[in-house]
Amino acid sequence: MQRVATHTLFGLLALMCLAVALFSARFLLPEPIMAEGMAGHLQARPAVFLAHVGGGVVALALGAFQQVTWRGPRRRWHRIAGRVYVIACLIGAVAGLGLALTSTAGPVASVAFSLLGIFWFGTTAMGWRLAMTGDFAQHRRWMLRSLSLTFAAVTLRIMIPLAEIWRLDFAVVYPAIAILCWVPNLMLMELWLRAWGWEAKVPAPLRSA
């Protein structure tokens, strides 16, 4: 039952990640559509903004599937895609930190998004380091933390429309969204890891092709 629930949950998360990745990829078009809300970033700091979007899109598209490819014949894909995921997260996090530090949404939002960038970078880097040292059990735990922060892109895009539907004052509610889009994600993942753990079995070495 736990396995079925976990696979169902990750399947749903993967679909949501793909949907947001596809929607966010519009900013990478030569002439972005529906980009009015981010016009300030596009005009003031286009390289940093596009680096953040590009890193986020790749991380979203690859991240959730990494949790179902770490065993068996798909491990070779897991290893290749994992490297790409790490690079995408690190680029997205550094660029996101740059955007946060120059945000015009107020100090609370700026601090919240800055901390998101720092934690996203840190959890991903820790997961990568543990993989390099062969501690795959802890590697998976840290990469799940990283994935929970990657998922902030999804929760952010759920909360903003809800604020508009409920006709909340965006200037007032946005700092709260900047916190709520990632802190609960990380807390829930930590609770899940503490409650259910993660398999500590080390996969068998990959055979040469």
Description:
It comes from Brevundimonas kwangchunensis. It holds the Pfam family DUF2306. Keywords: Membrane, Transmembrane, Transmembrane helix. InterPro entries: DUF2306_membrane. This is DUF2306 domain-containing protein. The protein has 209 residues and is an all-alpha fold. The chain has one domain. Helices cover 74% and strands 0% of the residues. It contains nine helices and no strands. Helix 1 runs antiparallel to helix 3 and helix 7 runs antiparallel to helix 8. The chain is globular, with a radius of gyration of 18 Å. The relative contact order is 0.11.
Unreliable stretches, pLDDT < 50, 5 or more residues? Answer: 200-209
Elements, N to C (H/E): HHHHHHHHH
What is the total tally of β strands?
0
Alpha carbon gyration radius: 18 Å
**Overall mean pLDDT:** 86
Strand content: under 5%
Number of helices: 9
Transmembrane segments: 9-29, 49-68, 80-102, 108-130, 142-160, 172-193
Organism: Brevundimonas kwangchunensis
Keywords: Membrane, Transmembrane, Transmembrane helix
Protein name: DUF2306 domain-containing protein
Question: What's the SSE blueprint?
Answer:
Layout: H1 2-24, H2 39-44, H3 46-63, H4 75-101, H5 107-132, H6 136-150, H7 152-165, H8 170-180, H9 183-196
Provide a quick synopsis of the model.
The chain has 209 residues and is an all-alpha fold.
Tags for this entry?
209 residues; mainly alpha; 74% helix; disordered C terminus
